[in-house]
Amino acid sequence: MKDTEFVVDLKNISKSFGGVKALTGVNFRLLPGEVHALLGGNGAGKSTVLKVLNGVHQPDSGSISIAGRVMHNLTPETARESGIAMIFQELSLIPSLSVAQNVFLTRENKSNFGLIDDTTAEKKSQELFNMLDVDVNPKSLVSELGAGQRQLTEIVKAISQNAKVLVLDEPSTALSVSDVERLFVFLRKLKKQGVAIVYVSHRMDEIARIADRATIFRDGRNVITAPIDQLPIDTMIEYIVGKRSLGLSDIKRDSVKLGKALLTLKNVSGRYKPNNISLSLHQGEVIGLAGLLGSGRSSLAKVIAGVDPIVEGEVFVNSNNIKLRNSSDAITAGIALVPESRATQGMIASHSLASNITLPILEELSTNGIVNNAKVRKISQEKIRELNIKTASQDHAVSTLSGGNQQKVVISKWLVTNPDILILDEPTAGIDIGSKSEIIELIRDLAREGKAILMISSELTELLAACDRIAVMNDGEIFNIHDRKDLDDPTLSDDPENQLQDAEQKLQLLIQDALTIKS
Amino acid sequence: MSLNDTSTEKTTLLEWGLINWRRNIIYIGFIAIFIIFSITLHDKGFLDPTNLLNIIRQTAMIAVMAIAMTFVLSCGEIDLSVGAVAGLTSVTVAMAIDAGGMIFGIGIGIATGIAVGVFNGLLTTKIGIPSFLTTLAMMGIAKGVAMWISDTAAVPIIEPSYSWLFGGGSIGIIPVLAIWMLVLGILGHFTLKRTGFGRRVLATGGGEQAARYSGINTNAIKFKVLVLSSCAAALAGMLYAGRLQSGRFQLGEGDELSVIAAAVLGGTSLFGGYGTVIGTIVGALMIGLINNGLILMGLEFSQQLIARGGIIILAVALSQKRS
Fold first, then answer.
1. What is the domain-level CATH number for residue B288?
2. ipTM of the complex
3. CATH 3.40.50.300 is the classification of domain A3-241
4. pTM of the entire structure?
5. Which of B23, B197, B202, B214 to mutate to test the interface with A (most CBs of A within 10 A)?
6. Which one, A160, B12, B54, B255, has least CB within 10 Å?
7. Which helix (H) or strand (E) holds A267?
8. What is the pLDDT of residues B221-256, one digit of tens each?
9. What would be the CATH architecture of the domain defined by A251-334+419-519?
10. Residue B70's domain spans which residues?
11. B102 Cα to chain A: minimum distance (Å)
């Protein structure tokens, strides 16, 4: 095969950050008109490869060719000029600018006199959104958009650049099923036009549906590149983790003996969402909230945690009626929220593990206002051990850890307050498969210890693995609540993976049902 | 339908009005203060055209610097050296005019601004010293140089056409200073809102990482706004020199606070991402208006300082969006 046939050809790329090897001799080739999936655990090197391709990182050695041309000193600008458009997880939109302004950022339409013409930009963005069949107002500020709308804006921004190579980094994380479907239809259109698509995802079901080929990374090397039909999901996992690991289907849910109701909500409504929620959460129980983006799951979590105000209804903790005016009321009542956005709400990334973990109980650890460092070390060491957090030391900055370990730090941070009721909002977002099952195991362990847990996840398999009951939400309301075991089919074989797959389909259907009944 | 974020859609008309009321507080405040002063101070000559034009003359230098400061703040940076640079430039211009005439003087004035700006910009973008510290240090350096080269004495300018063009003159009733302010204001407004450069400035301040990933050279943008700011400060120094027909190191002293206050009063975010040149100019005029009114009221300087501080805090507090 002639080299020029590849639209992207990375040869023998190596890259280190401060002595740590992020990439070692990586080779990656991309054909025009293919959807090429990149897989790998966190820290396997996917993101670094993408950043090399985009010119954000310069490789220490190796060569980059784009459309047959060897690129020396690739910068983000030259990468874009050569037709590489990248959609980052959460990085490339400016919150204070409008959707249309973001889409055409650095390529603004100019009117006479060379002034920027936002009206044309708005019209053009509207056309692009119409083509994608997506409902986003080009005039809205990005800061006013939900996560899904931001994602679609990112995609539209990239598409508007007439890209030869479109790089999608976890595009579906924030998207609902129907939006993912829409995205796939669109990607197939682009593919026919000869656009090469690099698709990074932790969701293998999606990759199996959309990708033509896949390259799997592990420990900064590319371990295999193969057509997708030669890579069934278990083979993929094998390459990703190197050895077979415990999957989600193996997690044990003890038959629960429900304790007393720790948290009871009676007709609780927030300012916009949720609406009229009644729910009882018992000791030792994990309730999952299922639903699409914007269904009110996070709003419910925030209301219970005292972050957002309760407009109507009553909250009982241990059958005491309590008033939740702010989050410290909730913490006093024994309610802890592990928030959705790890980086901004959950932790102070530049601070050490120890100071993050002990932040909520600093006062208890202080005498006369002076923090007792011995206690801080002891508690954080305990948590690092208990939760099996992988770090060289408790004094390292949390930002140096992988996503899964960061999440464990955030969870530890709330466990030190010893809450009775723990709310976890998307605890496994952006975490590799191995760490995911560890987090789910941790949630089960906490329930076994007698905590009551409310968990939000967009990954249904995780909800099914973790929860005793699952509440399906739509439009701020709980549509109905299902016992987890009702989703199992006793007539199916004992194979837990089959069982889980079947249960997931049922749950998908229930979520879709909630949508159609409402609208 | 699943993607509609209902929280934005359910915003009531009342809330919409409130949000915009806060955004426009500077204009409402400006008009309110103007009316109050018109009523209470009309017997002290507040509404005399001479007095009103004086307010504009006194405001012009602050406004010129604040227009550039709007870019600096929108970009997420700050420039504390503007006042000292204005003082320094007044001295260099005066000395250069004395040595080589008006054109040479103007050239040296602009060169002073560029030199300081390049210095600020390089330290901030190449070495990575936060602009707060770079320009804080530059404040002292500029003042020191101005004192040193002028021997702390005023340097007279005997060049009527310079004084006319940079400060003293007027066309009919309109002071030249007002024209400077107006022209630069219009230029600044369109540059910020309607040019690629302005958009890049707002993007850099609104989300530096995102801007970089979008292909914006954010360091180049920061460098340019810092140079722009120093050049505006140099121009303000030239205007001071023209108006007072001399260059002195004390000119512009402490102006950085009024300049930043004008921009923030006008609605520019101290943290980047949002800025408005029109708001800034009205902010500058409002500070001038308050100063003038307090003097006409016969307040002592100490009382003026307290009253001015209080009014600024009130205005900024009212303009804050509550979450």
1. 1.10.3470
2. 0.73
3. yes
4. 0.68
5. B214
6. B12
7. strand A261-270
8. 999 999 999 999 999 999 999 999 999 999 999 899
9. 3-Layer(aba) Sandwich (3.40)
10. 27-320
11. 33
